[in-house]
Specification:
Helix 1 packs across helix 2. This protein has one domain. The chain is globular and about 35 Å long. The chain is an alpha+beta fold and 134 residues long. The chain is built from three helices and five strands. The termini are far apart. One of its GO terms (biological process) is chromatin remodeling. InterPro entries: Chromo-like_dom_sf, Chromo/chromo_shadow_dom. Component of the NuA4 histone acetyltransferase complex. This is Chromo domain-containing protein.
Length: 134
């Protein structure tokens, strides 16, 4: 398991957000790691994968993780897409991940898609998050 530092930036927030949100990653020991930032996204077989940097580790992690492993870190993903609007994605379920996080849901298993948003949804989403940031 991994955790991420997530800064809540949504104007729709009704409660203060934790500065640490979990991002689940699958490793052989099921340890929890703190995600520093999302580095890049790639698409493989119609699914999105992420490379991330980890708090406390100077070395780059060469591993690519399914983007749904970071579903409990919607603010890190949102920040990445705000800063990299031409990157592949965002994931189709990112708004649902953010909603679930804000609602304090613990079970995200039903939100496990690694599929990308369609171009129209991506355009709308990027406009929405860029206007919130301004």
């Amino acid at each position: 398991m991994a955790r991420s530092q997530a800064a809540a930036t949504s104007t729709a927030e009704t409660r203060p957000q934790s500065t640490k949100a979990r991002a689940t990653t699958k490793d052989e020991q099921h340890k929890e790691w703190e995600v520093k930032e999302i580095l890049e996204v790639k698409k493989k077989w119609k699914s999105l994968y992420v490379r991330a940097s980890w708090v406390g580790y100077r070395e780059e992690d060469p591993e690519w993780y399914p983007i749904s492993d970071f579903k409990t870190s919607p603010y890190l993903l949102k920040k990445f897409y705000r800063e990299n609007p031409k990157a592949l994605g965002p994931p189709a379920q990112l708004p649902a991940w953010e909603e679930a996080f804000e609602a304090g849901e613990e079970d995200y298993e039903h939100l496990n898609s690694n599929k990308s948003m369609d171009p129209v949804s991506k355009s709308r989403y990027l406009k929405q998050i860029s206007s919130v940031a301004e």
